[in-house]
Amino acid sequence: MEPSDVIHRISVKFASKGHSIDQKQLTERLNRLTNEFGIPLPEAERTLVSDYSRQFGIEEVFSAAAASEKGSPADITPMAGLEPEMWVNLEGVVTVIFPPRSPSIAQSGVLADKTGSARFTIWARSNAPPVEVGKWYRFESAVTDEYNGQINFKVHSGTTITPLSDDEIPEETPVPIKDLTEGLCTVEAKVTTLFPPRSPSIAQSGILADTTGTVNFTIWANAGLQELKEGSTYLIRHAFADIYNGRLGLKGQQGTIIVPVSDASVITTPVLVTPIGTATSGIVTIEGKVVSSSNPQTEVLRQTGAIADNSGAIKFTIRTADESETLENDTWYRIEGAVIDQYRGALNLRIAKDTRVTVIHEDRTLEPTFTSIAAITPGVWCARVKMVQEWETTHDRMLQAGIVGDETGTIRFVTWQDPMAEQLKPDTVYRIYWAGVDEFNGQLSLTLSGAVLIEDSGDIEVKSDNQEISGALVHISPGSGLIKRCPVEGCGRVLSRQNFCQLHEFQPGFTYDLRIKGWVDNGRQTWDTIIGCEVVEQLTGMSISQAQDMAENNPLGPETVFYHLYELLLGRYFRCNGRVIENRLFIRSCEFLSVSQKRLFDLINRAAVTDSEDNPPSASSSTPAPAPGSGTPSPEIREQIRDTDGADAHTKVSEHPKSVPPPDAAAQQGGSVKNQPETLYKPGNTHAYVAEPEDDYDTEPDDTEYDDELSESYQEDE
Amino acid sequence: MATPGTAINRRYEREPARRVFAAELRETTYQFKDGTDDMSPSYILLPTGQRCNRVFIVGTLTEKRRSEGENLFYKIRIVDPTGTFFISAGSYQPEALQQISSIEPPEFVAVIGKPNLFESPDGRTLVSVRAESITKVDRAVRDCWILDTAERTLERIEATEETPDRQTAQTKYPQNPVVWNRIVRDALETVEM
Asked: Does B153 map to a domain?
């Protein structure tokens, strides 16, 4: 959809009602909403229609026009190139067919080619021949649409569907796992892990690896494919890769062809030794020394530990089920064909049943390198640190927790209960060898269990305990703004409106102060915060004497200053430095936060690589992993639920009246379910307000208000 | 200053204002009270398993409507990259009311408020936020909010600890919490550097 279409549509709509709209003004308003304010085009259209309707005093009748005029595209559009409201020719294989959800729909499912996939709907009225899963077809003159941000296409009476002949079906060559993208693909890889069965609709699931990387796979029960064996290598053709749960996964389905590869050693056992420090996901051969070993917290694992060479160190795990021999501490090994996977940001080397492990007898030296705390990432590291803070343990299995630090920063640590585990002494410097570092909830944590700790007589000046926080100022409390303080030496209490000090009674010779008392909040944690005069002046650009002028020259007096601060600072994001004293944050310096590109990119990546439940339960050494297949439906099952969400709109109304989305969503769903192709697209809804219970607003008691009152009574002045 | 003796040692902990995208808030259908007496706080349970009695929202005010009738209140729409928030302010929120009356759409605004569920006459559950405060902000604040909300939402999706709230969410919301992953990514992609 183009802005010009929207402008055209709005003009025509109102022209038909006898109102003409200035094109220039309309264009400007639309541009302003979409460009300046980032409003999605459909919502901008809704806003403008609603606004003009009110302006003209007419009832809103909102409906988007049909797709633009029919074109005659001669070429085949790759799936990845689909955009909403196009007339297209497509070629692909039907990978899924969903049960029909309405009598007006003959079939719906997913069509895929090498570049990607899209859902399709074949209208009953189109009289199209039925399509079959696993077969290739050409769709000519289908029309695309968008629902929930995903492209789909509709087959109507003008669409032709032709099955592809064998020589038209594209041939595929195996793709290295690290180069996999969404769409149909062929891989040659080894099954390194099979997960326990989770659901009747899944025949098998697990992890595939080649020397370039690893990928999770799922084989649907209805695909009728041969059973894969752990440790065997296969050529898998016409599998379908898609991103689920932020991770790329490979699906074996009807149409997929699996051929066992007999001479697999080339793919699965690299001859070259990878330095541990440069290793990434995939099948590797390494040579290293076992530097730590700890008792696994779960019976699934036989041994966990760390193995190092002079380039770095990596965690390793041996599963009980794999029946591999355990490794000896302080011994060098050559490990061929082990699989490296990622868990909680850290790499993990899995020594499986068919991994070849040989002891290296030759004498080698290992030189540990210390890493500064600031440079630590998830993995295995050596560091020289001082214990700076001990916390109360929050878990029975914890021996000790707290903070260690060096000149560059601090990190939390945890030591689990273990006969071998030792406690750190406060304010003492240690050399820590090969401790594991996990990332959890964005915070790094150093696990000392299994690591070697050596007390060091030196000292470290640990980077200051100055707290840096960032968050939004979500509340400005009364007592903020321009206040009067008792002038008596050493008192400084805040005076009442009548210049009354609790200790020194009336003080007409008060001094002014400017400050903010309020709450800074990052969405997880809140800080009762005091921002002093200097920082307030710097943030607002208003000096205390200007504030004084403002208060003295306005009928509302100091309240004017309060509201001025309110308008300038409330709801803004800050990065603050300060000290916490008795749960209150005293801010020393503060600046407005702006978006950092790195954080943005990190988050985009994180949204794409979130750890899923597909992780093998064995990969963590410090945290009990959830058992697979427990209670909740498997991701794939829920994915199916999600996939058919829109389709199930009708059923949901009757079965779960409470789970039906509010009007806007319902309108869109209704649009895609009920309407014929002529009115496929129907964003927005004009009844959103009507449905809100207007009468309740001022009569309803506010249950939660009391906590604010409490807060007021406890916020004593300094 | 007289304070009740029993409460002196009780430290007041303010609940964080949760960061939630419109798309997630809109799907919220479960509300509960923590405790049994009238003063017990009331929470909504977000589909990602977070209880929530206050939200912080930054988006574009696209529309405001004043009530017709005796009680003055405003109903406004605030749009984020994922959908629309329905916000109200009445005479019990005088500061918010005063602010809203002086802001004309379209404008970036920050809202702190309490979410509530309502059932519409046709039986659907709707989420509306009663604004405690609303201030005019700029695009930079809006972008910060998108990153902030993305991060908090990802944390909720990624959390593995089985809290009672998370278990309740699994029974109340049929969709997999990770459906929000794509929404987070789409929202992040609207931020221009």
From this structure: yes
